[in-house]
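TL;DR need structure tokens for one chain.
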Amino acid sequence: MKIISWNVNGIRAVAKKNFFDDFAQMGADIVCLQETKAQDDQVSETLEPIEGYHIYSNSAEKKGYSGTAIISKEKPISVRKDIGIEKHDTEGRVLCLEYKDFFLVDVYVPNSGSALKRLDYRQEWDQDFFNYLKNLEKEKPVLVCGDFNVAHRAIDLARPKPNYNKSAGFMQEEIDGMDRFTQGGLIDTFRHFYPETTDKYSWWSYRAGARGKNVGWRIDYFLASESFLPSIKDSFILNKVMGSDHCPVGIELK
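>> reply
TL;DR here they are.
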């Protein structure tokens, strides 16, 4: 089984580019999308050309903002939206599908913002989302994927020094939030398989030709419950796939 995660930065925008060709070429069993920027009916309508898959989405109350969706060949046992905390549950940031052997959680973590206006809120979110995942884990192993809006270590971005504690996505508070996940039994699958790999990123600014120069950040992840690691064969980053400021990331199950 191949599972892919992709922040598409607008499902309707990416659908006008090469999305359907890329989708077919990736050959995934499940594709998790973030930042759909569309309501549920708009997601369904946009993805209508895709045959042989079930489509689920969780949209923000605010139109054209945030949102998550999952495209799955296999029909899940259950579908759950949000994390059950009112202040976090208006932006369509979490979608959870239950399968026989695991929960798959698609997440679009709040960005702290250019002036770090949401950094305090982001810290609350990280704690509450971690608690949500650990509660799920009491039932069965968890796979959580999506845009976490943080580069975890210096190796995960091209220019760590000028960004550390200055830019959203590489603030110590955000790093601490990621530490909570990885030290709390959720393994960063890419780093598990490729602990020393550099220059593999999943997001690039649209400014100053950053993508062409590969001045990027790895902020999209697949985290897995430790007990589920033996079921994972590989983790990968499809940095050649265009269409968004993010590229798809994925895992392959045995």
